[in-house]
Design goal:
- By secondary structure, the chain is α+β, with helices and mostly antiparallel strands.
- It folds into two domains: 6-121 and 263-272, Roll (Diaminopimelate Epimerase, Chain A, domain 1); 144-256, Diaminopimelate Epimerase, Chain A, domain 1 (Roll).
- Helices cover 17% and strands 39% of the residues.
- The chain has a 17-stranded mixed β-sheet that branches.
- The two termini are 15 Å apart.
Length: 274
């Protein structure tokens, strides 16, 4: 008798790619070890994050569990939120859905041009909320490492630190990123953003993601960057964030919520023996 096969979708937002599995009607048993295998680009399917859809309960249309390639669980992923929202909206025949994560509820709506806008909620700006290891001003974190210093930090469901730099091309991000991710000032590790402000409404950004490494795009990282840039007075509260995989349109609204707009895509569908 052949092994039971489980359907999956490979999706991405600006190249930030996901293996999406549906565990709403039966438990697929996606353990950290199994998630790491699925994410492996040589031995599994390959992705930046494994996304597991689960029943949401009242107040949301789906629960989205986010697992990194190292098996750790993330609290938020903006690009995956848009991808999942597009799937569920198609199932329900609606243009607006709510995606629940361990970090809270995220309303998402379809816009003209098949763009999707996610309300990623309000940033958390206190040092204990990021979290950081010691009390400090999150707008000027006392951290210097190699050529970098003075990041701003916030949480967008995940801990983020943003370094504002004059020239991204001059940085060895592949070397700096993993060391900063695990710096002792970040007790839960952190996503590290390297941002170059090009204009008051335009930012170039590269993200080293906690548990995933360099990715082509990071939605929660773009959210943290617009918040930290606006707090520093480097930009307004609306900006285009240029990532290696494409552009996200960001707005930090007056009600404190951060909106992120961008495309989604399905690369392929398949089946795998779990």
């Amino acid at each position: 008798m052949g092994r039971s096969m489980t359907p999956f979708r490979k999706m991405h937002g600006l190249g930030n790619d996901f293996v999406v599995l549906d565990s709403r009607t039966r438990d697929l048993g996606i353990s950290p070890r199994r998630a790491a295998w699925l994410a492996d680009r040589q031995r599994g399917i390959g992705c930046d994050q494994v996304i597991v859809l689960e029943p949401a309960g009242p107040g949301a249309d789906v629960f989205m569990r986010i697992l990194n390639p190292d098996g750790s669980e993330a609290g938020a992923c903006g690009n995956a939120t848009r991808c999942v929202a597009s799937l569920v909206a198609g199932e329900l025949g609606r243009d607006r859905v709510t995606v629940r994560t361990i970090a809270g509820e995220l309303p998402v709506e379809r816009l003209p041009g098949d763009l999707w806008r996610a309300d990623m909620g309000a940033p958390r700006l206190g040092w204990q909320e990021v979290p950081l290891a010691a009390e400090c001003d999150t707008l000027h974190v006392p951290l210097a490492f190699g050529p970098l210093s003075d990041p701003a930090a916030c949480s967008m469901g995940n801990p983020h630190a943003t370094f504002f730099v004059a020239d991204l091309a001059a940085l060895d991000i592949a070397t700096l990123g993993p060391q900063l991710e695990r710096h002792p000032i970040f007790p839960d590790r952190a996503n590290i953003g390297f941002a170059q402000v090009l204009a008051p409404d335009r930012i170039r950004l590269v993200i080293w993601e906690r548990g995933a490494g360099l990715t082509l795009a990071c939605g929660s990282g773009a959210c943290a960057t617009i918040v930290n840039a606006a707090r520093r007075g480097l930009t307004g509260r609306r900006a285009s964030v240029e990532l290696p995989g494409g552009v996200l349109e960001m707005e930090w609204r007056a009600d404190d919520h951060v909106l992120m707009t961008g495309p989604v895509a399905t690369s392929f569908r398949g089946e795998i023996a779990l």
